[in-house]
Every structure is written in structure tokens, then in C-alpha cells.
UniProtKB/TrEMBL annotation:
InterPro entries: CitG (IPR002736), TriPribosyl-deP-CoA_syn (IPR017555)
Name of this chain's protein: Probable 2-(5''-triphosphoribosyl)-3'-dephosphocoenzyme-A synthase
Gene: mdcB
Catalytic activity: 3'-dephospho-CoA + ATP = 2'-(5''-triphospho-alpha-D-ribosyl)-3'-dephospho-CoA + adenine
Family under the similarity heading: Belongs to the CitG/MdcB family.
Organism in which the protein naturally occurs: Paraburkholderia domus
Keyword Nuclease: no
Lineage: Bacteria, Pseudomonadati, Pseudomonadota, Betaproteobacteria, Burkholderiales
One Gene Ontology molecular-function label: glycosyltransferase activity
Amino acid sequence: MAPAALLAREADAMPEAKAEHTSRAAALTAQETGTVRFRSNSAPTTDVDVHWRIAPARQYATVLPVTSTANRPAVSAPTALSDAQLARYAVTALIEEAQLTPKPALVDRRGSGAHRDLDLATMLRSANALEPTFAALARVARRRSEPSALLRAELAQIGRAGEQDMLHATGGSNAHRGAIWIVGLLVAGASMPGRGPRLNASQICTLAAQIACFPDRFAAPSDSHGERARQRYQAGGARREAQDGFPHAIDIGLPALLAARASGVDENAARIDALLSIMVSLDDTCLLHRAGLPGLHAAQQGARRVLQAGGSSTPDGHTALVALDRALLSLNASPGGAADLLAATLFLDMLAHHDASGSSASWNT
């Protein structure tokens, strides 16, 4: 049977998948909202109105500044962005995440962090090798136009081929497997025709989550490091993050980035603080795999200390960041899952500003 026919037959034989998808999709629309006041550490006389949103599937220990859904920067209708443009945004997000320095125990301009098989040049080769994959994901999602089991299967097939391109570019090192899933789904969501004249970041995340709720019926049993950590520690992992609507990107990373900018810190520090905000509450399976619960707790507590000290741009915050970096390196622990979600955050931010040029100044306009 031809692959397309096999996919169609599988799609028709998935009542339980449709039921799961419907249940989760309904949950994604049931959001709670409220308003808090955020006081800048660097400009204590200035208050910034922000809002928070709690996804029903998970609540966080701390209320973090989040922009109102209504006030989030709108992303132009996907028809204004070609498949090639979306792919370039995705690659740029991966490159900008890799180059961001200093990140705790992650590959950056200083070196390899806790990764013996990766360096910045390898990360950049991997990111650029994935551009055709992201373009293909956008093209298929645009053609299918709405989440479905068939689309999920097609995207998975493209993603697996993209993994092979990544491994070929890196000489066998896993630089961006998680990012192919996280950012790739957002690329697919961003390429779909909008329900109105404009799509915002929240709608893109919801569409991507609806795709993720369908099972990948053609996937071989996974024995990846992340999957083993997910099962051992009962962590949600990248799969649950996507199915829940990317809360660490839309409800934590992006709002933290915008709030840091509003407080007056430079772009580099704003992005570091967004990464740290993600780390505070993420059950990062990369950390769990490499260093177990001690590594996860060290990362979460260390990131919290940096933010409580005023963020990475303050003297006390910088000292805390250096201590966090040393602590994670001593444990051979790396917050790779948080890095993938920072890339997702940057992708959404670039869509809002329609700029993948790499100019930090233009991201604020």
C-alpha cells in the first residue's frame, strides 16, 4: 500500500486519538487570566502592567509576568509569510539561542558547557541543516490547513528525516532533536490559515498543541535519553509541553523576555533572564538524564537565585549566574530542554516583529 493511502487508512482508524485530541483541545481553550504589577529591578520607579495566564493542565509555584492575550504582539496572517520565511525564522531562533552567552552549562560562545560532543560550530551547522526540514513542515501544514491525525503523521515523517540531516551535519551528535519537535510544531502552527485576520502567539501555540495531541502511530519505540528520564522520573517532557500548549514558552519565556526589555536591560540580558525563568519551573528531562533530581534541583534553585538577585544584568545576579554555571558543570548537567524552549520563545518573538535579520535593535521595534 502506498504511504499516502496507509496514512489515510490510519487516520480513519483512530477514534481514540480523536477523542484524546478533542479533550485536550477543549482544555487548551479553558484559560484563567488575571493581572499583576511587575516592578523593574533596574528601574524601581517604573511599574509595568502585565498579565498572567495559567494553563489548566499545570500551575506554577511562582506567578511570573505574562502579557495579556489581548495585548500580545499580533503575528501577521501566515499567508504573509512564506514557508521559506518561517523556516528562516526557525533557524535564526536556533542560531540566536546557541550564540547567546553566558548560558549556564550550555554551549555558547565561551565553549561546550557540559556537552563533550558539541560546540558552537556544530550547533550552527545543525541549525542550518534543518532549514529544509522546517520549510517542509510549514508547507505540509499549510496544505492540510488544520490539525489532524494525518497531518501529525506527515509532520512526524518529515521530522524524522530532519533528524537524519541533523546527525549527518553534526557527525552523529544530537544538537537539536528536541528543537525539531518543539520549534517544528510551532512552524506548522504558524503556517496554518488563521481563524481571523491575524494570528497571535497564543493561537499559534494552540494550533501546534492540537497537532501534538494526535499520536505518532508510525514511530518506533523510543529509547532516547529524554524518554528514559521522562519514564523514570514521571516528568512531562517535550511531548507534554507541546500537548499542554507550550506553557514554558508562551506563559513564561515570552512574557519574561518582554518584561525584561520593558525594565530597560539590554537584549542579551533579557534573553538570559528569559532562559532562567523557564529553568525555574521546567522539569527538564535533559537535566534529569544527566544528573537526576540533584541536577534538576540545582538548576531550578540556582536560576531562581539569579532572578531574585535582580537578574543576570545586576552585579549580584551575575555572581549568582557564575555560581549556577559552576554548579551545573560540576554535576555534568545541562538544561537542554530549557534551551529548546528559549529557541521557541525567540521564534514567537521574531514572528511578532517580522524580523529574522539577527539585529537586536530591530527586535524591539
